[in-house]
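During the reporting period the student researcher (J.K.) took over the structure-prediction task from the postdoctoral fellow and processed the backlog of single-chain submissions. One of the processed entries is reproduced below for the supervisory committee.
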Amino acid sequence: MQESNPAMIATGSAAISDSWLHRPWAGAMMRCIADPAADFDDAIAKDWPEWLPREPARADSFIRMRLGSRLLRDQDRGASAIISAGHAPRTRLAFLPVPDAVRLMCLAAAWTGVPSLVGQLRNPDVVAARSVLGEDAFSFAFHAALLPRPTARLMSAIGASKLPNGPAELLHCGAAMFGLAMGCIPDALQVRLRLRSPASIWTVAANACRNDSAGEDAFHAMRRLVRKRMALWSHWFD
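J.K. obtained the following structure tokens:
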């Protein structure tokens, strides 16, 4: 009879090493797996029952997990795939708290659009950029002017070869850079990304999750931005 290995855990139908449990990103990974509806975008909800107020439902962990189970049907083997993928530093971008991940996309957008943002003179343009990207990202653009520009290969991969005209287009470029930086991720994780709010931005990020020659450029760019502006998470990607 074969002895059980204490360093292995059963997840779905697969047994995988539990060596990741002590990693700094382990808790975030588990939340991503167990509570995918925590950051659910209400715009995705179809036929939401009128008798169930959304905010109380979102605040109730039991209801939220039931909702997550409903949204992730046929994803029973997703946990093992996500845990296995989490060994790659690039994939760990998906485990950042959603507000911080969106902030990182905004920073990437500001870095991408430095020439247009720092040259804005009209007040309505400034107000629009701050509204879409946030004050932090808009201010960062002026510091980012001193950073090396994204490579031509990366700019082409995120659709920014021709500098986008408006802040919303810039934000889509930042989301594409975020997704490209993650590379090819498991379907179960990509599904979770598509549930997040705001869905319009996370859809762009999820669509960009692929193996691409510019993927390493995107990841190094993201890691540089994390270290400069979000040091709390920088050790996740070493």
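The committee noted the following: Residues 146 and 236 are 26 Å apart (CA to CA).
J.K. will present the remaining backlog at the next meeting.
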